[in-house]
Amino acid sequence: MLDFVQRLGRTSLDVTKGFGRAGIIFWQSLWGLPDFKSGPRLLIQQIYFVGVYSLIIILVSGILIGMVLSLQGYTVLVRFGAEGALGQFVSLTLLRELGPVVAALLFVGRAGSAITAEIGLMKTTDQLSALEMIGVDPLKRVIRPRLWAGIISMPILAQVFNMVAIYGAVAVGVYWLGVDQGSFWSNMQNSVEFYEDVMNGVIKSFAFGIVGTWIAVYQGYDAVPTSEGISKATTRTVVYSSLAVLAMDFLLTAVMFGVD
Amino acid sequence: MYSRKIELIVGGFILIGILALTFLSLQVSGLMLNSASGDTYTLSANFNNVSGLTKRAKVTIAGVNVGYVTGIKLDPMTVRATVTFAINSDVDYITTDSIAAIKTAGVLGEQYVDISVGGAPDVLENGGVIYDTQSALVLEDLVGKIMTSMTNSKE
Amino acid sequence: MSENWIEIRNMSFSHGPRVILDNMDMDIPKGKIIAIMGPSGCGKTTLLRLISSQYHPSQGSVLVNNIDLSKLDREGLFKQRQRMGMMFQTGALFTDLSVFENVAFPLRVQTNLPESMIHDLVLIKLHAVGLRGAKDLMPAELSGGMARRVALARAIINDPDLIMFDEPFAGQDPIFAGILRDLIKKINHAMGCTCIIVSHDIAETVSIADYVYVLADGRVIGHGLTDEVMNSTNEHVRQFLNGLPNGPVPFHYPAIDYREDLSLNRGES
Q1: Distance between CA atoms of B85 and A43, rounded to whole angstroms?
Q2: pLDDT at C1
Q3: In this structure, are residues C263 and C269 in contact, taking their beta carbons and an 8 Å threshold?
Q4: Greater confidence, C101 or B4?
Q5: Which of A213, B73, C60, C112 is most exposed by smallest CB count within 10 Å?
Q6: Cβ B140 vs Cβ B56: under 8 Å
């Protein structure tokens, strides 16, 4: 019993310490003067690795999810003779929930794990120490561009996801199942509010970008510098960020669309 | 090695993001760029009941989209709903005796305003008011009426 | 006083409950090649990190050029570190930069030199390690020995006062080890900098070192001029230098009685 209480105490201390370290890393790498002339170039390079490399998976999954949504929505709506509301159903589901969340989960799996592995590897091969020795803060040189690249890329990827998903839905709903194109679009336009739905989705994906990349860089920076440590850190990145994205999604949804 | 090619690709990536956001705001949410009033003019109409009509609902003539609802307010004097709508300026033949009706697209579809153009010689200018209106059909009322008439006929 | 570039006094370092370096005193004279030798896991690399202030001592002090680095703020520390070069065991080249950019990196960060001057300086150093022709390769395309030579060029690019070599000879073929040995000797001669070599390759290290420290279990067990140490009568030092399997450093990791472990008494119980 006493053992259990002690373990509980130690675990909570460790967790608190972890949060503290993560917070310090986040804060120090996010702000501060750019210490290096090639700051923008580093950022662009990281957007390339973090954002552009994730584009393919986002495009393919977006189209597929749009098609599935359309098909499922149609089979339900057609029973009520309300297949005209398909556009409304698909677009609201995507903009409010599925777009930001699924894009964030894909992003975590594709880019987050890569960020963790890369930073962990840099730690293992002493590259971070070498930077320290040369007089460059690794937080600024290595962590900051990746953090910002993630924060910038995530909303872009989420919006691209939404766009292709809606086209996927049009392809199935309009061209295959024969829902009227006009009512599909006009229903959609009448029910979707720009600030309420589109902008809230953008804000959500921003938040997911921050949390996902933050966890990824922290896990990489804090990884045990061995091959086993890196593989564990990569797994933790995917698990923790996925859970964090889903939990934050619930909180944000409650705040944005919840009962007034 | 990195500079130019990567910068171009990243630029393209961000453009795709902007394109997607523009698509979502214009095509999906139907956000109108607040164009100068040259493109549209404003009309209004008073309804007894607008149940379910929302801002940016479409305004049609003979089923063709000619504008959208810009505002719904309650007039404290008459206790009726004042609906304002923006009509495309090339539709300049809405006469003073036109009828504005709130209709429903399908059983569960959205509410919209349909205008039937009359035969009067004068057309409405910017700020004009359509006096002849038909309020929204409220399903509950209708069902209620049918129920009572059915019970009455039984007796 | 000014003879010693680095002075370590009563310094201890522990990681959690484990004491890695225990009450250590060490003087590193200026402009010499100093070898720090000892068996694996005796805290040699940790010592280098303490000198460069990547770790802070738990107790005691490390003075580099009469400055206690652990008391400096980040900016002051980075300023002092610009006068140090370090060659890591793995080379630690930045994988996203070419060989040329790797070597140029310290200059770009620390100075505002014009591009043409950086270009020339980098080529001079690359030429010195014999890799001028490899300047456009990426680190992934280099062999282990070439990567270390690039790392050496990067460590000396800003003509530091102190260069630290972490296991420069480990896992290298004899030809490369010989090349590197001569390079270190030449650099020490030409630039007059203090070189610290951490290694357990005795033959290579001893052949160029002026002064030798032998560590074991986090303590200095012997030090002196190279010849003195080589002829030391200390049993501990002799065991290490001659590579004897048994001696004060036991072959067996501490364990319970062998017979008991194999359960030879099983029948009786």
Answers
A1: 47
A2: 40
A3: no
A4: C101
A5: C112
A6: no
For residue B6, list chain A residues with Cβ-Cβ distance below 8 A.
44-45, 48
CA dist C21 and C43 (Å) reads 6
List the structure tokens of B63.
């089923």
Contact A134 C106 (CB under 8 A): yes
Contacts of A157 in chain B (CB under 8 A): 17
Express each pLDDT in C135-179 by its tens digit. Answer: 888 888 888 888 888 888 888 888 888 888 888 887 777 888 888
B partners (3+ CB pairs within 8 A) are A
Partner-chain contact A127 C78, CB within 8 Å: no
ipTM exceeding 0.85, yes/no: no
Average pLDDT, stretch C232-261?
Answer: 74
Chains that touch C (3 or more CB pairs under 8 A): A
Closest CA to A167 of A94, A81, A78: A94
Rounded to a whole number, what is the distance in Å from the CA of C93 to chain A's nearest CA?
6
Q: Which residues of A touch C54 (CB under 8 A)?
A: 129, 132-133
Task: Give the mean model confidence (pLDDT) for residues B136-143.
Answer: 76
Among positive and negative, which fits the CA dihedral A181, A186, A191, A197? positive
Find chain C residues with C-beta within 8 A of A122's C-beta.
95
* Interstrand relation of B64-75 and B80-88 (parallel, antiparallel or unpaired): antiparallel
Q: Which tens digit of pLDDT belongs to each residue from C29-45?
A: 888 888 888 777 777 78
In this predicted structure, the answer to whether residue C246 has a pLDDT above a threshold of 80 is no
